[in-house]
Amino acid sequence: MMTLLLPLLHPQPRDLIHLLDILEARPDVDAARIGMGGISLGGMLTWLVAAADDRVSVSAPCLGVQNWGWAVRNDSWQARLGSIPLVGAAAAADMGKLRPDAEVAEALWRKLLPGLLDSYDTPLSLPCVAPRPLAAINGALDARCPLPGLREALAAAHGAYGAAGAEAGALQLRVEEGVGHVYTPAMAAAAAEFFAEWL
After folding, report:
1. Residue 139 scores a pLDDT above 90
2. To 5 degrees, how large is the angle CA 153–CA 5–CA 42?
3. Is 82 part of a structural domain of the chain?
4. What is the pTM of this model?
């Protein structure tokens, strides 16, 4: 299992891993068939917990799989930082800047989410899910989880899925055109379809 060192998110992955302990101990739960999904932050937690604990046999994170490093390198950090505007403004002021920029975003991610850009970002952590089925579900216009960065992360995971002998289709990207960071009925249907196929 991966060790998660993310202070901003720390209790949630730990609590979800504890929930897996509880589910695994229940006689009415087939511990070999535990699926996990989530939306936005829930999608982020789904990817992290699936990477950390192989008891998640199938995962379908929606609007949550982001390539943080890609966003910083490609000046696509604004929407994610915009979801916490007061924190971004305070970080900029602490760095002697009038407004957030890529340097502020990187410094803030390193402070709030230590290790994320170096050890846990999607190109490094998604391969840990292999060969278990994972469908990243995203809107084509989602500025918080930009599609080019997500594609780069999935490309990094693709080799691990091949090396692990994963079944065809175990790693998927399902994109809804014309949609931003909004959970839609089509995304819910895509997640349900994926769980029905793989669980």
Report:
1. yes
2. 60
3. no
4. 0.90
